[in-house]
Amino acid sequence: MKDRALLALYLGLVVAGSLVHDARWLGAGLALVILSAWRDAWPLMRRTVRAVWPFVTAIALGWLLVQRGDWRAAAPVTLRITARVTLLTMLAFRMLPAVSLPRALGFSPTLRFVLVLATSQLLTFRRLFTDFRLALLARTPRRVGPTVALRHGATTAAWFLRRAEHDATLMSEALDARGFFLDRD
Question: Which of 167, 159, 162, 151 is nearest to 131 (CA)?
Fold first, then answer.
């Protein structure tokens, strides 16, 4: 019951954080999440900053480019997006470790099945990603430079995209063969 309540609270806070468009309210939400972490606030903030800075940097540079270098025009939107992304990421890092998803979704066999399916896919792709990383390290005699790492990352991402597309095609064909897409008039 506790897990289900925490998951519902988290989902409600995500919806609320997505609907608020005032950076001051988003900042206040950030302050509340930081205060709720209390002694774990510094690790939470470090983890959040490490997770969001590439996205936030890309968004800020994109808005600056769109506004043709006019920072005054780009700043409000960039600030709002940064505050929202940081809040939602910090909420996830703060609340989701306390939730046991199998217990929270225990009321629905379908949701439990989807959770098991998603977890198995995640673990498979994590193992494959680790295999790709180790293969790069094993086949590179010296330390991997940024160009090689970027090229390897792009190739790995393309492989994962092709794999996901292939798997989706197979699943779609299997469902079609079983009559899942037939119109039910």
Answer: 159
- Is residue 71 within 8 Å of residue 64, measured between CB atoms? yes
Q: Mind giving me the DSSP string for 92-133?
A: HHHHGGG--HHHHTTT-HHHHHHHHHHHHHHHHHHHHHHHHH
87 and 160, same domain (yes or no): no
Residues 71 and 134 in one domain: no
- Asked if residue 71 and residue 36 are part of one domain, the reply reads yes
Do residues 71 and 145 both lie within one domain? Answer: no
Is the predicted pLDDT of residue 9 greater than 80, yes or no?
A: yes
Quote the pTM value. 0.75
Same domain, yes or no, for 6 and 96? yes
Query: Would you state the structure tokens that stand for residue 123, as one six-digit string?
Result: 């673990």
